[in-house]
Specification:
Blueprint lengths: L1 H26 L4 E10 L5 H10 L6 H11 L8 E7 L3 H10 L5 E4 L6 H10 L5 H10 L1 H6 L14 E4 L5 H13 L4 H10 L3 H14 L6 H14 L6 H4 L13 H4 L24 H8 L8 E4 L5 E4 L2 H15 L5 E3 L4
Antiparallel strand pairs: 1-2, 3-4, 5-6, 5-7
Helix pairs in contact: 2-3, 5-6, 10-11, 10-14, 11-14
């Protein structure tokens, strides 16, 4: 009888030790890590390998305990791939929660309307995602751009302005692909039908939209600015848009050149030099400017001149246009005006 009592007490002691150990591993987190650890989880990676990576990074006490916890909780097959940053000091439940929710490291980059490929490359480089020069080369002449057939100017105009979230390990083609997909998603059947009605190609629409984007400072004026350009195209007049003279993919610095000097600089994009649209977009337009290119206002305006606040005075004749310029000079009390759509 006594031996059974001894065995029972021993069993209880062993069970208690195992239970205490289990409770410790489950409930007591490892210590905080001085330098946060990045753990990369690949798509399709086994939960066993995930657990080992976490243990190697000192994020969990023991890989087998983590595997057991994942299986018992039913979440072992719910882990999302990606890069995770851990500072330690979390229970297994907390760690697994991050993996199941997909709390991955992301780099957020906002691409505003109207910036060029060169400027997009600069923003991405500042975020640590790319080498500026490598991205610009890929965006203009890389295999992805060539496969889509975007022409000599590459992806200029097609990098859709939006806020993007990228993995810090995203490749240049993955980043380009995300931006290009956002653009092509805008070419709905309705847009395609409207392009057909206007007898425009998508490239011509984006080119016109990019000029509208650069000219329009007041959002509500976009359709009216579009109407001026359509009227000029119809009459065979040069567009004479200053932003086209301030764009050259081979000389990004020309954008800083004052308009009065830039308009006298020969370029394939300078619409003071020829009639019609330039060979490609001069920036990456947003949705509102593309809509203005698709649905311009109905007007008989041929000229516009900018006020200091960015709004414009629109004119039907050159004489009206000259009076508008003089009016702005008087209002500003200075000897020059910012002029767009000149016909000199």
């Amino acid at each position: 009888m006594k031996i059974w009592i001894v065995l029972a007490i021993a069993l209880l002691m062993v069970t208690g030790v195992i239970g205490a150990a289990g409770w410790f591993v489950l409930a007591v987190p490892p210590p905080s890590i001085v330098n946060p650890q990045t753990v990369a989880i690949a798509s399709g990676e086994s939960f066993k390998k995930v657990a080992q990576k976490l243990a190697n990074a000192r994020v969990v006490w023991n890989p087998w305990a983590f595997i057991l916890f994942g299986e018992l909780s039913g979440q072992a097959r719910m882990v999302k791939p990606g890069d995770y940053s851990f500072k330690g000091g979390e229970t297994m439940a907390g760690v697994l929660g991050h993996l199941v929710r997909g709390d991955t490291i992301v780099v957020t980059v906002t691409i505003p309307e109207g910036i060029t490929v060169n400027q997009v490359a600069g923003r991405l480089a500042a975020s640590g995602l790319v080498c500026e020069g490598e991205f610009e080369r890929a965006a203009r002449h890389g295999p992805l751009v060539e496969a889509i057939g975007l022409g000599a100017t590459g992806s200029e105009g097609y990098l859709f302005p939006a806020t993007y979230r990228f993995s810090p390990r995203a490749t240049i083609d993955e980043i380009l692909g995300a931006m290009l997909r956002r653009f092509y998603a805008t070419l709905t059947p309705q847009v395609e039908e409207r392009l057909f009605d206007l007898n425009l190609t998508a490239r011509e629409m984006v080119t016109l939209a990019s000029i509208i984007e650069k000219e329009a400072k007041a959002p509500g004026e976009r359709p009216l600015i579009a109407s001026v350009f359509y009227n000029r195209l119809r009459l065979g007049m040069p567009l004479q848009s200053d932003p086209t003279a301030q764009y050259n993919p081979d000389d990004p610095g020309i954008e800083e050149t004052p308009a009065l000097a830039a308009v006298h600089t020969p370029s394939a994009f300078n619409t003071y030099e020829f009639v019609g649209l330039p060979p490609g977009p001069i920036a990456n337009p947003g949705g509102p400017s593309m809509m203005a290119a698709l649905y311009p206002a109905h007007s008989d305006y041929l000229y516009f001149v900018a006020r200091d606040d960015g709004t414009h005075i629109f004119s039907r004749t050159f004489a009206e246009h000259e009076r508008a310029i003089e009016s702005i000079k008087r209002e500003a009390g200075r000897g020059g005006a910012s002029v767009a759509g000149r016909a000199e």
